[in-house]
Write a structure and sequence with these properties.
The complex is a heterodimer. Chain A is mainly alpha-helical. In chain A, about 65% of the residues lie in helices and about 0% in strands. Chain A is globular and about 35 Å long. Chain A starts with a helix and ends with a helix. Chain B is an all-alpha fold. Chain B is about 80% helix and about 0% strand. In chain B, helix 1 packs antiparallel against helix 3 and helix 4 packs across helix 5. The longest helix of chain B has 30 residues. Chain B is flat and about 50 Å long. Classes of the chains: A mainly alpha, B mainly alpha. Chains A and B meet through helix 3 of A and helix 4 of B.
């Protein structure tokens, strides 16, 4: 799933490891989410959103919206 | 390869202990049968003793999947387990038919576990190729 995680992380000068520690997941998890290879569960998506003080849809792009925009 | 989580460390400790128990049970069973020390009523029990810790390792793997808090790492391992199971069942089924038609010889059943662990490795390679991380 497309997302703004890398941008949001970079704005705070956090490394993937920093973000992983804050979320209590592995660095590989952060990398997989950032690159769109893995879609987080709803609880993890909420944790990410709460960490950045944003709504989930401000971080993750809805696949339906993404595909309609592509059309 | 991904970061070693606490759940993974606990899994490894359990597997090490179970492997030690397996070695002891195997030596005990082989020695007992070789020297005809096992009375017939106990033969079945002694014969399956080495299988019990192996079954325990499957249980440890299941417990690991329950205890793993990192959902991405858990997903990687789940994919590996599915790969291992599909690989093993496919080989066993194919071999069964070849054996049925007299084209290959009988193979000891415990090779299944060796195949399964090999399949776990194949699952790791598949994870690496498709997701960039092998798993545990």
């Amino acid at each position: 799933m497309e997302n703004r995680l890398r941008v949001l992380r970079a704005e705070r000068s956090w490394s993937q490891q920093d973000l992983a520690e804050k979320l209590e997941v592995s660095r590989q998890s952060v990398n997989a989410i950032e690159t769109g290879k893995y879609d987080p569960s709803l609880p993890l998506a909420f944790r990410i959103a709460e960490l950045f003080g944003l709504a989930i849809e401000e971080i993750f792009v809805s696949p339906a919206r993404h595909s309609s925009r592509a059309i | 390869m991904v970061a070693r989580t606490q759940a993974w460390k606990r899994y490894n400790i359990r597997v090490i202990w179970l492997s030690l128990v397996y070695a002891v049970f195997l030596i005990f069973a082989v020695y007992g049968f070789k020297h005809q020390l096992v009375p017939h009523p106990l033969a079945y029990l002694v014969a399956i003793l080495p299988a019990l810790p192996i079954i325990g390792i499957f249980g440890a793997l299941g417990r690991y999947l329950v205890e793993e808090q990192d959902e991405y790492v858990r997903m990687l391992m789940t994919r590996q387990v599915l790969w291992a199971s599909a690989f093993t069942l496919s080989i066993a089924t194919t071999w069964g038919f070849l054996d049925n038609f007299g084209l290959v010889g009988r193979v000891d059943g415990y090779w299944i576990i060796v195949l399964w662990y090999f399949g776990l490795g194949l699952g790791g390679i598949y994870n690496k190729l498709t997701l960039g991380a092998a798993g545990c």
